[in-house]
Design a protein that fits this description.
It is built from 37 helices and no strands. It folds into 3 domains: 7-202 and 215-433, MFS general substrate transporter like domains (Growth Hormone, Chain: A, Up-down Bundle), CATH 1.20.1250; 504-597, Leucine-rich Repeat Variant (Alpha Horseshoe); 598-751, no CATH class. The model is unreliable at 672-676 (pLDDT under 50). It has 751 residues and is mainly α. The chain has helices at 7-31, 33-42, 47-59, 64-71, 76-89, 93-102, 106-127, 131-138, 144-170, 176-197, 214-222, 225-256, 260-288, 290-310, 324-354, 360-391, 396-418, 429-436, 439-453, 457-469, 476-482, 488-499, 506-518, 524-533, 540-545, 552-564, 571-580, 584-597, 603-611, 617-631, 634-646, 651-667, 678-695, 699-709, 715-723, 727-730, 733-750. It is elongated, with a radius of gyration of 38 Å. It is 76% helix and 0% strand. Keywords: Membrane, Transmembrane, Transmembrane helix. InterPro entries: ARM-like, ARM-type_fold, MFS, MFS_trans_sf, Sugar_transport-like. It comes from Gracilinema caldarium.
């Protein structure tokens, strides 16, 4: 989706929304969750009351239809902001609740709390009608998933630090007036954040004439199996999440007798878990996809709840170190929030990808109603369930073990269902897990995040260079985007990074073919090289035509690409082109291409280049190396050629040394593969090579080659036997060194 705002307007609006999100997260952390639970427990609330209070969180979503009615008469941002402002003002009764407790009217204090919490979430529900359209506008663009996760990261970070401050303020057993102070702080900060909402631009209104009724939209969506399947999974996971995240607070209090301050501190670790999963999801969601992350995070929830079933330190406080239980509970809070914050975040991303933009308002209401039903029912039922188990005579430990075991069973059922969700693009589960558990891929993702934020060419180039050193297929889409950069240096670095990848997809292959067609003299030669290196055979017809190109670099890379693609049918044309061109660069690359083809017949073409009058030394080097590659002695010949270039006077000594080394290798063998007299053969070879390198006389060596190697009937044997009789070839030191090395190594193979 494309935003209706200009880039500057979108940037400005995101800043405002981020500020609102920060203030909102700060106030919401204080006015909900573990703080409200601890406040209620301080007032003497039972598990059933705790369940009802947590259920109120989810009743918000049943008030969204009221918001829908209001947005027909008023601007959607105005409805959003006003409802948010009201929700904080209705929490004032919680400020005065401690005064009634002092008078011995705890019932009135709890009633005020329940009224305030209910009104808080009811107002929230009315305003939430505007949240999805506003967030949808803020998240417009290719970074949709990343920005939505960014919002979650901000909220989690603020919540974490807020929970830490709350923990320090509460201590072990704080007076009720401390909770009244916290409520006041939460209300004031919430009002400030709500006022910021009024400054956010209004999202485009839907055309009323074309709108379907709510129930018609819902019925049409539910007729689709993928949407039904998602809703069932989302409902079940929301129920499990609401119970788990709410009742680990009660679990810490009732099973391990932890103080209010410590439990608030555990909530900090919970927020840290949500923050960690948010940062990870921001990197992954747009490139890996929501489905594999949905499954992975659900499995993490199973792992996170397992320790709660075991309750390993319950009743053992006197026999273990005092820090063991706090560490255990801190990790439990971290894992539970890590997993369920992850599932909730990717569920919303998956939902947005599953529905049509025109259905956003109506199906957004359904989304939250389902969330509300699951959360309210789960919290209320879990509270009653725990109280009934305890009243039946079970211990708190056993009651919670039964509860968490039931939740894990439901999670395993959800994991089975999730396999049937449609992918909505991106990666399959196995591929996603490969990315998640790959340091290289995660490193690449962090670099991509830097790439998205880069503001100048130098930054882009630096990141692209780093991506070349950290090749990962998850970066491919962004690298292809950089091929459209107006700066040549950026396009070159992007291609270098693509070249380093092990595999290419069809989109990348097509983009490279297009680059070859449209960008001669710039990047076409690099793209051509990549096509050859990655075996893109569908590019062969195009690459064949490049031998007529004016860009000589492109011509050279085209010959190499065809060789790497194994286009033997086109090899004669390449040989002919090498003969006719006078461009030394094309000749060198053509020689390398013939080496890659590996056909003995091509040796004659390469020898023709040596036969020319005064070929440049760098061309002679490449030609003899290509011949060495074709006949299979490149590894032995290359170091000899390097030594020769350092001191050309060593050519004869190097040739004779090679014979001596081969002789020693043969002498160490216990038996030979032929009936020939090895000593005689070796002696004749030494005599022949000595005469060849000292006197440039190849007749004796030619006879030796035909006599002792001719039985192989291989093309190169006869070719070299004839070539060393030609004065224009023998005159080249490099050629004589090549022939001597070849003869010695041939002898080693045949004795």
């Amino acid at each position: 989706m494309t935003s209706h705002l200009t880039p500057y307007q979108l940037k400005k609006s995101r800043k405002l929304y981020n500020l609102f999100n920060g203030f909102n997260a700060f106030s919401f952390t204080i006015l909900s969750g573990s703080v409200i639970t601890l406040y209620a427990l301080r007032l003497g609330a039972t598990s059933t009351v705790i369940g009802i209070l947590n259920a109120f969180v989810f009743t918000a979503f049943f008030f969204m239809p009221v918001g829908k009615i209001l947005v027909r008469r008023f601007p959607i941002v105005h409805v959003f902001a006003t409802s948010w402002l009201i929700r904080y003002l209705v929490m004032i009764p919680l400020v005065v609740a401690p005064f009634f407790d002092r008078m011995g009217r705890t019932d009135i204090a709890l009633t005020l709390m329940m009224i305030g919490v209910f009104a808080f979430h009811a107002s929230r529900g009315v305003g939430m009608i505007g949240n999805n359209p506003v967030l949808n506008e803020m998240a417009a663009g290719p970074d949709r998933g990343a920005y939505m996760t960014h919002i979650q990261v901000i909220a989690s970070a603020v919540s974490m630090f807020t929970s830490l401050g709350v923990a320090l303020l509460l201590g072990r057993k704080p007076p009720l007036m401390v909770y009244a102070l916290l409520m006041t702080i939460g209300i004031v900060s919430g009002v400030i954040g709500s006022l910021m909402l009024y400054r956010i631009p209004e999202p485009p209104a839907e055309e009323q004439g074309k709108r379907e009724e709510f129930f018609a939209v819902v019925r049409r969506a539910l007729r689709r199996a993928p949407f039904r399947r998602f809703i069932v999974i989302f409902l079940t996971l929301s129920l499990i999440s609401s119970v788990s995240r709410a009742f680990i607070v009660v679990y810490s209090r009732n099973v391990y007798a932890q103080g209010d301050g410590l439990i608030s501190l555990y909530s900090v670790f919970g927020s840290l878990g949500a923050l960690a999963i948010g940062l990870l999801t921001r990197l992954l969601v747009d490139r890996v996809g929501a489905k594999p992350l949905y499954i992975t995070y659900t499995f993490a929830a199973v792992i996170g709840l397992l320790p709660a079933i075991l309750s390993p330190f319950a009743g053992a406080a006197n026999s273990i170190s005092p820090w063991v239980v706090p560490v255990f509970l801190a990790l439990l809070f971290f894992m539970v929030n890590f997993a369920f914050a992850g599932t909730e975040g990717v569920a919303q991303t998956y939902f947005f990808g599953l529905i049509r933009p025109t259905d956003m308002l109506d199906l957004g209401i359904l989304y939250y109603i389902v969330y509300g039903i699951a959360g309210a029912a789960g919290s209320f039922a879990a509270g009653l369930f725990l109280d009934s188990l305890v009243n039946a005579g079970l211990s708190q430990v056993m009651a919670f073990r039964i509860l968490f075991t039931s939740l894990i069973f439901l999670l395993l059922v959800v994991l089975f269902w999730q396999r049937k969700l449609i992918r909505l693009g991106a990666l399959p589960l196995r591929g996603a897990l490969g990315v998640i558990f790959s340091f290289r891929d995660l490193r690449a993702l962090t670099l991509l995040e830097r790439l998205e934020k880069s503001r100048n060419v130098q930054e882009e180039r630096e990141v692209l260079e780093a991506l070349h050193d950290t090749p990962s297929t998850v970066a491919l889409t962004e690298l292809l985007d950089r091929l459209r950069s107006p700066r040549l240096s950026v396009r070159i670095e992007a291609l270098r990074a693509i070249e380093a990848l092990e595999t290419l997809n069809t989109e990348a292959e097509d983009a490279l073919i297009e680059d070859v067609q449209n960008n001669p003299f710039t990047t076409a030669y690099i793209s051509c090289r990549i096509l050859g290196n990655h075996g893109v055979r569908k590019a062969i017809p195009l690459i064949r035509t490049l031998l007529r190109a004016e860009d000589y670099m492109l011509v050279g890379e085209a010959m190499l690409a065809l060789a790497r693609l194994g286009d033997q049918d086109f090899r004669p044309q390449i040989e002919e082109y090498i003969k006719t061109t006078k461009n030394p660069r094309i000749r060198i690359m053509g020689a390398s291409a013939l080496e890659t083809f590996g056909a003995y017949e091509s040796i004659q073409v390469l020898l023709d280049l040596l036969r020319e009058e005064n070929p440049p030394p760098y061309l002679r080097d490449e030609v003899v190396l290509s011949i060495a590659g074709i006949v299979g002695i490149l590894e032995r010949f290359y170091p000899l050629l390097v030594q020769y270039r350092e001191d050309p006077a060593l050519v004869n000594a190097l040739a004779l040394d090679e014979i001596e080394e081969i002789t020693e290798q043969i002498s160490t063998r216990r038996r030979t593969k032929t009936s020939l007299n090895n000593k005689s053969v070796i002696r004749e070879l030494k005599d022949s090579v000595t005469k060849f390198v000292n006197s440039y006389d190849g007749q004796q060596l030619s006879r030796w080659i035909l006599t002792y190697l001719g039985e192989t009937k291989e093309f190169d044997v006869y070719l070299f036997a004839q070539a060393i009789l030609e004065d224009d070839l023998v005159a080249h030191d490099r050629f004589r060194l090549l022939v001597c090395t070849w003869a010695a190594n041939r002898l080693l193979l045949h004795v």
